[in-house]
Amino acid sequence: MLFEAIAQGYDLFASPFVFALIIVGLMFGLIVGALPGLGPLMGIVLILPVAINLQPITAMSLLLGIYVGGSCGGSISAILLRIPGTPLAAATLFDGYPMAQKGRAADAVGLAVSSSALGGLFGGVILILFAPVLAVFARKFSPPEFTLLAITGLVAIASVSGESFLKGILSGAFGLLLATIGTDQISMGYRFTFDSYHMLDGFHLVSIVVGLFAISEMVFQFMGKDLTDKPDIPLVRPQFRSVLLALKHWKNLLRSSAIGTFFGILPGAGGVVSSFAAYAVAKNAAKPHERYGEGEEGGVVATESANNATCGGALVPSLALGIPGDPIAALLIATLLIFGFYPGPTLFEDQPQIVGGIFLVYLTSNVALLVLGILMTPLFVYVLRIRKSRLIPVILVLCVVGTFALQSSIFDLWAMLGFGLVGIVLRIANYPLAPIVIGTILGPLLENNLRRSLLLSDEGYWIFVDRPVSLVLIVVNTGLILWVAYSTWQKYKASRKSA
Amino acid sequence: MSARFRSFVLQVEPLTLNRNHLEWLTLVFFLALVGVVFQQINTDLVSQGIADGDPFHNAAFYPRAVAILILGAVFIRAVLLTAEIRDTGIKVTEERVSAMFRPVQLVCLFGLYLYLLDVLGYHLVTTPFIAMIMIICGDRKPLPTVLFSLSTAFLIAFVFEKYLKIVLPGGIFSINIPW
After folding, report:
1. Nearest to A48 by CA among A58, A39, A59
2. B47 and B20 share a domain?
């Protein structure tokens, strides 16, 4: 199955256009990753309208390039400016910035790029080996299992997002409701359309995502100070010997990549958790002479290999089960859905060429990252000097043109602005936005399978307890909710004591 | 800033917002969503005849379940928020309402841009929009601002119209460049 998928995918993958788009995606990803406040999610959001006008594998090459490049790009600003371009690189500045302060900025950036690429390759190997096995296992799943899987995805993302589980659940439920707008797939009736033909298919996912993330982010950037400032950053030229430097820490590299992949597979955990976890483990395993936090190479290796390995891990449940682990994976799933491919066991069975193509694109992106990241660093340093006063209007116009390009609809633009306002209010009130996207993607999967399960069942909801896999998932979800409730209670008690 | 606007700012200056206000506002938003769901189920969905029967055929079953979940979560959050305020008081930093003028300015300008995009078309409104944002952000040199906004607007249009074959809004004058 695996070799067949890769062989079939090779035909779609082996084209100069696919290679060119991987390069374009990586460059764009590295740029949005390096620019503080943007990141791979924003990059994918901005390029999604362009991507869905392409062929499936070429679109995935562009988006996966951004995912891989964006997950690494944040380290450049973390090392040079002491401002992580993305939260993924927050742990990188612990040792990356001190290295730059000691005059080793080029080594630090080179190490970050090399470790990201090698960690990403590790995640890719696990993806290729593990996803088909999981897909074969999931072939036995029926509506009750898929219902519980969708619920698990939502509970997991809510439990790790932001300060409050309840806020995560509310955001996720908002996403579930958004997914119900339009024509009901079973009764073919219209729900919440308010007699508007624009709403017959609901809100376009891109309007929702661009509004929630890009528009709200631009408003927040606009509220910042010094929008015309041009940071003074020295030119940095990393060398290819950085790869050898990273390989010197091979144990750390393997361990951190494994941690990153593991957290990627777990829905909700993501790159931030994995990079901090890998850093903590590397620090604990350090030799006595290694001083983590003072410019130790191992710190950069641990965080960067872990956060890029997470990408490969996150693709495992996304492709094999159709359950996204993070909002970026949710957007990749959404792209496949727009092309008419349904991620999950049937994708491996019916369209192995797509799965194989994605595997090859992902591996190639990581190899290309190694070369591009090292050669093009001076360009990314130059990009860091762009004033926000120029960046904000350009991104806003790109949001408008990109969203308009989907269906040539001005209504989509107003919807985007509306979701932008919702995003601003929710962000100020500290509500996580990622569960909204996950809820919107998982909504149809959850609703269809829940309703089908109840049709199949003679005993109502007992069908979910009667089946072993769904019972295990119920136990997992209950455990997760109880754990969150217990830790919230502990925090509440501690805050009362200190008050 | 005009004298009239300045006096308005001075009048509302004592107004302050804190995160608790926004928390309550957000809970009201979620309650309103629940209200819309139940209103639509009991009117539109009933009139279409899709709001009854077993869960498989009942199109109202699932949105109602999600709305009830939201209602429960809002209730628990409201109880916790009340307890938090009672125990700790409002210690969060209060923001002056006037601090909100800047983002509101951007949102209004963006809304105006979307409106004019439909009326006048992309090519007539995008350059002034980019230039306006740059000026509000603090760019004061007229020539670089005009050159940057003009070149960016045309570059984006060129890429989307020429290579992606997207017809950008032409407005009432139907202005589209045949690249």
Report:
1. A59
2. yes
